Amino acid sequence: MAMHNLVHRAQGKTYRLRISNVGLQHSLNFRIQNHKMKVVEVEGTHTLQTTFSSFDVHVGQSYSVLVTADQPAHDYYVVVSSRFTSTVLTTTGVLRYSGSSGGVSGPIPGGPTIQIDWSLNQARAIRTNLTASGPRPNPQGSYHYGMINTTRTIRLASSAGQVNGKQRYAVNSVSFKPADTPLKLADYFKIDGVYRVGSVQSQPTGGGIYLDTSVLQADYRTFVEIVFENPENIVQTWHLDGYSFWVVGMDGGKWSPDSRNEYNLRDALARCTVQVYPSSWTAIYIALDNVGMWNLRSEFWARQYLGQQLYLRVYTTSTSLRDEFPIPKNALLCGRASGRSTRPL
């Protein structure tokens, strides 16, 4: 973790801070000594303006907060510390008021460490501002995702184990093995033998881990429920390329159809990276309106590298340019796609 040493602020003014966790593994807690922070945006979604003294940022996530310089003109600690780790890692910076009459004083403000419920409740409290953004009279909340029937439920469970004596990580028992040709090229040129549609199941198998090039197919223009299930004792975060999705629910224990009774079907956040707490689940709704071969992966990079990822093939038989543009004529081709000719744009 690294932080700029000095941040200068003028007394009485309000500033917007953009805070991102670009780490490889750990969730972080962010706080500023003696100051409150008002969360106003999450990954492009305007939120209800909720005030916190500190808040968690999980791997791959970003937040915008408003901070008002409403304290005496001194220096104040800016603190980032790791969450859910046996050893708490901490780094500090300094917020310096213009005309500061002294350096930082007092102990570094403490924050939460391993408390899961605290973080879960905070995540639930950050919701979409339905009256913000968008052209009037149609604010961003006019898309009623909670009134659309889902056509399919996909449950994805993480796991860890040994394959051929080596550590691997998996989704629904499949540990991703890279192919010799980029999957989108294989898909576009209809090259057989690079991957198999359905090489990963859409429900947990409960079986042992094995290697394969994981591709899960879904139909274009469907509205899908995906449930991430985390039976392990670490916080995980998941990212899907090419999409934003609504985070409709998260809780401890095992997911069941009855869990839908607690979904937020009105003002859930739309985002592209979501956390799943230890021994917990997180559910999302997603409109599959973007044709392609999209990577769904753990943001814990060691796990991603060792197999905790898959590709979601959003498929249609249509070849209309309204659905997907052809490959650029100057695209670099490799693997089994080498030497193929591309159609001009």
TrEMBL record:
Highest taxon of source: Eukaryota
Entry keywords, A to Z: Glycoprotein
Pfam name, any one: Cu-oxidase
InterPro entries listed in its UniProt record: Cu-oxidase_2nd (IPR001117), Cu-oxidase_C (IPR011706), Cu-oxidase_fam (IPR045087), Cupredoxin (IPR008972), CuRO_3_AO-like (IPR034275)
The keyword Flavoprotein is annotated on this UniProt entry: no
Domain Plastocyanin-like: 10-100, 180-317
SUPFAM superfamilies: Cupredoxins
Classification via PANTHER family: MULTI-COPPER OXIDASE, OS04G0561900 PROTEIN
Protein family membership: Belongs to the multicopper oxidase family.
Protein name, as recorded: Uncharacterized protein
Organism: Brassica napus
